[in-house]
């Protein structure tokens, strides 16, 4: 295949993956909707509890079984579609790397980093699905991936080009792989932290009104389980981010620019992200921070992470990471 054919394959695969991700999102949303017990089912339960009717109990049981079966089927279908989209997503990444001359890893600009980072989010979700029971996270993960891919295709897409001199280094693989893994993992941890805050608020309202927590939120793990999940994910991602930001990044900077630290905006914000997450883990280990405070601090870290990735590229014109800001600067010039 020619380089142009590989690039076309990559673009078509990204479009196909986006479509399958969107179908998976629709299925997951239908799953969430199916979790809501039909009004008729609730009335049958009330009638069965009040009158002890055998017909009432039978109708209630059949309604409950049908609803549970529908929810389980939609959950499995959504997961399978997500895994299929991830496989097509991987084809797009391979095609992107094969389209370059010479062939290279697909991490040469913001577009490629974005599609790689979203793939890692999908990969981690699929890999940890059974171990941590992440079925409840499906719509959130798929929704994030779909939205980010749309941003990448519409605003960040760039033609395949050879690596710049600064990027043509073995440290590209080491540094960017660790950064992508950490970014994807921090994103999953951020989703868990968001859901902790959402469920805590819902439980507080339910307690005040004397009602039970129902609907899709009832499927989300309880608060201690969400707190533990967020902590474990962040505890894994932090040393990977440390390796990317404080070890491989400075070594590569010295090789490319003869300085370990250049006070580049991206370097500074990457360090800010490291400080926030270090504070998060330190507060949990020493001060016993858990629950809401820990979740808020984790989301602050996630905000700094994504601001460094997108915001700095849009607002800064002094970054030495010119390979990352070129396309964004072009978009800004067209808008103005």
From TrEMBL:
Entry's transmembrane regions: 12-35, 77-98, 110-129, 136-157, 172-198, 229-253, 268-287, 294-315
The UniProt record lists the keyword Nucleotide-binding: no
Subcellular location: Membrane
Membrane topology: Multi-pass membrane protein
Record key words, sorted: Cytochrome c-type biogenesis, Membrane, Transmembrane, Transmembrane helix
Family matches, as InterPro entries: Cyt_c_assembly, Cyt_c_biogenesis_CcsA, Cyt_c_biogenesis_CcsA/CcmC
Signal peptide: none
Positions of the Cytochrome c assembly protein domain: 107-316
Main location: membrane
Domain of life: Bacteria
The keyword Transmembrane helix is assigned to this record: yes
Name assigned to this protein: C-type cytochrome biogenesis protein CcsB
Protein species of origin: Nocardioides vastitatis
Gene: ccsB
